[in-house]
Amino acid sequence: MASIDNAKTILIIGATSGIGRALAEALAALPSKPVVIAAGRRVDRLAELKVKGLETVQMDVIAPLDELKQNVEGIIAKYPELDAVIISSGVQYQHFFTKGVNLAEIHKEIAVNYLAVVNLITFFLPHFLKLSETSRPSWLIPISSGLALKPGTTVPNYSASKAAVHSLTNCLRAQLKDTSVNVLEIIPPLVESELHDEQGTTPALSKFWMPLDVYTTEAVKGLRAGTSHISAGKAAETWELFKPFDGPLGA
């Protein structure tokens, strides 16, 4: 896979917090000096990134399909050199089926964590295939999770949604192998993030998570190396065990 150092314009979706924001700031500092576009819902956070020199665009990944498609087309029209998309948006809820499940939260996890990835790839891919016709490389980079490989019992639906992203990414990589579209997957371990605040699990998980700055350094190394599966920490250990059995049928 080609190095992200060769990318001219990088869009990070879900860049207003956590891994997405950290990657946006880190990639903007690459020696290759790509244009970095931060996309997200929170206007105040986007304003902070704008001050730091990043391009910004407001985006709701679970907006109606026609609205999302129009947003994507607007981004491509404004940034025709766009050649890399990292999809970092995500939500997580705890579910205990023995105690009753909030189906609205289940559906939101699937919508944000998986269906949004499918929709965004569907809308961006034609642009990347046009770049491929001139042998210009591009990058589609969904972020899954170590829980895609080894699920967490307290977050079963989140784990399942990320497993779906992992499977989708493997299949896309196989389908696009004869093009210049590089399909990479970022597979984080438990990382310092606001994701856990809503559940009230931050005090407990902070004892075990990888600091965000440490993780970001590892993720950027993988992106610069063009690694197809970018993992670190416990997720890297799990991936090494999982790797011999991974990959789609018919690849």
Kindly summarize this structure in a few lines.
The protein is an alpha/beta fold and 251 residues long. The protein has helices at 18-28, 43-51, 65-78, 103-132, 156-175, 202-205, 212-225, 233-242; strands at 9-13, 35-40, 55-58, 82-87, 138-142, 181-183, 185-187, 229-231.
What does the model show?
The protein is of the alpha/beta class. It has a single domain, classed as Rossmann fold, CATH 3.40.50. 45% of the residues lie in helices and 14% in strands. It contains eight helices and eight strands. The strands form two sheets. The protein has a six-stranded parallel β-sheet with strand order 3-2-1-4-5-6, sandwiched between helices. A two-stranded parallel ribbon has the order 7-8. Helix 5 links the parallel strand 5 and strand 6. The longest helix has 30 residues. The radius of gyration is 17 Å and the shape is globular. It starts with 8 loop residues before the first strand and ends in a 9-residue tail after the last helix. The mean pLDDT is 93.
Taking all Cα atoms into account, the compactness measure Rg is 17 Å
Proportion of helical residues: 40-55%
Overall mean pLDDT: 93
**CATH architecture verdict:** 3-Layer(aba) Sandwich
What characteristics describe this protein?
251 residues, alpha/beta, Rossmann fold, two-stranded parallel sheet, 8 helices, 14% strand
